[in-house]
Amino acid sequence: MTPTPEEVQPRTDAWLLEIDHLRVSYGRRRRTHTAVDDVTLNVGAGEAVGLVGESGSGKSTIGRAVLGLTASSSGRIRFEDTDITSVPAERRGALTADLQVVFQDPYGSLNPARTISQTLTEPLLTHRAMTAEQARARVQGLLDQVGLPADAANRYPAAFSGGQRQRIAIARALASNPKLVICDEPVSALDLSTQAQILNLLADLRADLGLAYLFIGHNLAVVRNLCDRVVVLYRGQVMETGPAAQVTGHPLHPYTAALVAAAPVADVAAQRERRLARVTVTEPLTVAHSGCPFAGRCPHVEDICRQQRPARVKVGESVVACHLFPSGKGDSHTSGSVDEKV
Ligand SMILES: Nc1ncnc2c1ncn2[C@@H]1O[C@H](COP(=O)(O)OP(=O)(O)OP(=O)(O)O)[C@@H](O)[C@H]1O
């Protein structure tokens, strides 16, 4: 029997988040643009899943659909066994206090007219029904947890640097004791040393609190360090998914390989080699409606790639959607068709 995508992903205690054949389109009628195209992915309790792909691949749209900020065109989203697909964002909060978000922009995501204490207290009163006294104590605990001084509570966002504001945004996400935090490019707007501090903080919080992350990013090195599993998106479709070390160290899909090659490395000679390899991802785009979306840029393209969407095929611990890995071929223990299409 053909295994379902769930069966080929390592199972933790239970899936916190299940995204099943999600499709999101923007626009109307003939101007419709499908930003997310039949995406299936799950996040288990305490698991960190990285969602990577270049700009415009649909990463944030998936995050926004989970949060109810963007409507799904089809498919299902379940959180803690509750179907939240059609629940509007304003009602989703009550259903999903266990699901929180940290956005990219630490400047735009905090209300400049509210003190940090006011910002952090609100979710405590709303979701956790705390008394004012309990909330005050919790705010101090949260500030300590994210490495900010106690007197930060009475100040306004303008008094803080970008990195400090991101710590405040993280504290706000933690306030309701979530199980899953969607991190939408949380360090992209920060300088390199601040990025490292925030990433360390996220890793520590995950270890201390048993948090799960859906970590949206385009930096493969960051995702490899922070995440257990990686999902590689291209033009709204999943190209490859598997253990982070496997996907980033031994990519199967030519697109993943190109992403890995394009990622900066410290070694100058190695970087030069990678620049040469990057030629394949800077070729002009051609739209592949029925075939593989990467066909127009793929160095291994064959006729079938332009004609047929590749099946999802299990290869070792990864799942790849590429005609280089035809279903039914290869070692029966390591390879097999997972689904009819990506
Ligand atoms: N509100 C919108 N209306 C119309 N099209 C949109 C909207 N938001 C996103 N898109 C389009 O959907 C596609 C996916 O965008 P999305 O922001 O999800 O990608 P992304 O991978 O997160 O990119 P980035 O890394 O630049 O944030 C893009 O082509 C984008 O132009």
Keywords summarizing the entry:
342 residues, 13 strands, binds adenosine-5'-triphosphate, alpha/beta, 4-stranded antiparallel β-sheet, 2 domains, disordered N terminus, 23% strand, Rossmann fold, 12 helices, globular
Could you characterize the architecture of this molecule?
Residues 17-260 form the ABC transporter domain. The chain is 33% helix and 23% strand. The chain has 342 residues and is an alpha/beta fold. It folds into two domains: 5-98 and 178-339, 3-Layer(aba) Sandwich (Rossmann fold), CATH 3.40.50.300; 112-171, no CATH class. Strand 9 (229-234) and strand 10 form a beta hairpin. Helix 4 crosses helix 5 (132-145) and helix 5 (132-145) crosses helix 6. It is globular, with a radius of gyration of 21 Å. The two termini are 18 Å apart. The model is unreliable at 1-12, 276-288 and 330-335 (pLDDT under 50). It binds adenosine-5'-triphosphate. Residues 26, 33, 35, 53, 55-61, 218 line the site of adenosine-5'-triphosphate. The site of adenosine-5'-triphosphate has 12 residues, from strand 2 and helix 2.
